Amino acid sequence: MVLIKENDNDDCKSNILKPNNLMGLLNILGIHKVSADKFIEAIPFSLNDVTAGAENEFQAVVYGNKDDVDLPIIIKESNYYKNIHRMAKSGETSKKTVLEIDNYIDKNTDNIWENSWVRFPVSVLTPYSKHVFSKDLLSDKANPNSQIREDVGKFLFLKNGEEFLRIPISYLLKLSLTNVISSKEDIHPLIKVTGEKLTKHFLNDNTSPETYSFFPPDLRLGTKMGTALAQESLKRFLLIQLLTDYANKSFNLLSSGQKAMVYFSSHPPVRQKYLNELISDSFYRELFMSPCLSGWDKGIDKYNYMILCHQVLSRSQLNAVKKLKDAGIITSNLAVIPNISNISLSNNGTHISLGSKKLTELLKNQNSGLTPQHEKYMGDLTIKIMEHFIPLFIGTYSASPYRFDFSDFHPEKALGFMPHELNYTHLRMIWRRWKKKAKLKILGRPVTPFGPVWFDKLLSKVFSLKGDIVNDFRLIDYFVSIMSTEQSPALNGEIGNDISIKKDLSDLGIFDTKMPLYLFYRQRICAQMGFSGFEGRYYSMFENLLDDMGTSVNLQTLLTALAMKYILKGTITHSHIPDSPEIESERRQIIFGTSIGIPTFYVNKNTKNEFMLRILKETKKTRYSVRYPGYIRVYNIEYRKTLVNIIKKDAADIIELMGFENMMLDLQNRIEYPNSFSASGKILKNILDESGITDPFKVSSSNFNPIIENYYRNTLRKKHIKEAVEFMEKDFQKFDLWTEYRDSNYRDALYNILKGKSSLEFLREIKNEILEETASEETLSKFIHLLILTIHKDIKFYNQRN
Prior knowledge:
This protein is α+β, with helices and mostly antiparallel strands. 52% of the residues lie in helices and 10% in strands. The longest helix is centred in the C-terminal third of the chain and has 41 residues, at 701-741.
């Protein structure tokens, strides 16, 4: 490493721009001149430098009879359904498949249809909503003269001579919002203009509804840091609930036998997985892939891209089978081939992004000296450091509990995409330890299913083989992190490395060059995103948004700042965490093991990862492995306890500066007493208490996992609504004071909605109606207008601060 002296010549000045030149980087960031006690305040992602945003993915369902709901109707009307019936009659296909599809439709006793679309008369839309829909049907929204999309027939049809609309619930939310801000002529302009801007935040690109933050709150002590983002997410969640309820009533969904519902749920629905096993991948996409009407100018191009993603992931899952055989995990030619249609795009998580104001400002200033090369160099190193700490989040702040039966333990299905995410050594270790952890033993030896369903069921019953419950199924089920190739490291700090690795993986049939690089912690490049930062993609379900999500944002902020401290102090460089598939796999195996709940993992005693060695030196109860000579056996819980201690020691100054002392106590409790304090423990306990089940292993996965879904759909959804309403009581109280003493524009808009009544008084009057979902269209409309008004105030407040 070359340090710059004060009398730099021209060569030295050019050397300042080299990303690995620490003194030059400190110079550019303006840190070299600050005193030692001010160093922490000056680094990126420190106090008052952080903005945050979230993208939330939700589960959508429609309640209703099979004759009223779109999904069963569209299946029965499809050529696919008619063709397989004809083929079954002629003996060209199995009658069993046809019977199972019919059972999916006819024996749905709960009348719940996951990810179904909805249908209603076009006449219920206001002229403005019709205009929005017409614009969204353009092949290029940026060009008003462009042609209508070729697939317009998917969305419009005639019924009894009346024009009807059929759309996914993700797009229903947008039309519900446009309707509610244009249903009356006297709606205050502030509400209408703000509402129009908010429609851009309702995305329609995948199977599930997605929204992203209406504004990026900056994390300051006065806003309780991460709580500010949790509050924004709660308000957005409440708006979604109100818009859904409004659409059910205003769009005649309830009166026509349909009830739409949106809620947090992380794993793909059990019944949707069942249907996926019965139909072709093409027909699956026709039923469940959203048409991308909202969020992109060229929606049909985005739709085709989503089809590509589904095809690539499905192919990748099939290619994983060969890797399992090469790894020695599949030891014979007998294997259960995964379906050619992969359903993992239907799992739902939350992505939390942090941005640095300092880095963003410098990168946007061409004369600052900070270049994309510096950004990439620091970004890749931050990601590598961060991946060592991600096990602290899994099951702790977010979770996705899931039950596996004995018959589910075919490695080609249970291990998901892990053959592409871990090297053979760690893959074999994880599979052996998972089998040992699960209830799969006969005479003390773990066994896995043999293949014939009838035989596996008999074996399971005779020997009481119960399977397992994992902490976070979403991270096992989805392609969450790409492993580098030997020729193309993904995180070596060089611009363009993502292009190289995607090309390598595309040639191997694992990935596609058009897709973004999948990582647990992904860099957000300033030139692409408009800000410089990182996106945490390892979050699944939050049991409580203010406590779980808010605190996890604080921990993510703390660790990102700590990574920057390590980098700018020169404590950790790229050479300390080398770029090789083996080193990546070594640290990521711990994340997957935590998701499964495996108690131990193994690290090569001669690992070249110096940061890992430093962690292990401070970890208790480690020993050399007897089973794996040359490896150190590490207890997962002890590793995570050590991470907490390292944070306390290495980030003590950051913790004090940002006021994170209570957060660290909370983290310690979640790690040491998971049953009482962790997200996974709380979710599972609540599910068991509500269902009256004392032992989840006495219930099959086909019965237990729907119980989890029911808990998310009803109990947890209502709990989140209550949490949001209680927050809004406090928010409205502040808003009323603001309107009375600070801003006449809001006072006029508030009077326009409530005719002299305060927002807090109104909320207390309607609170029970909102919680019980019995509010009228008029009440819902007023409440939505009030929410939009407070969101405008939030946006204005944060814009003034930045």
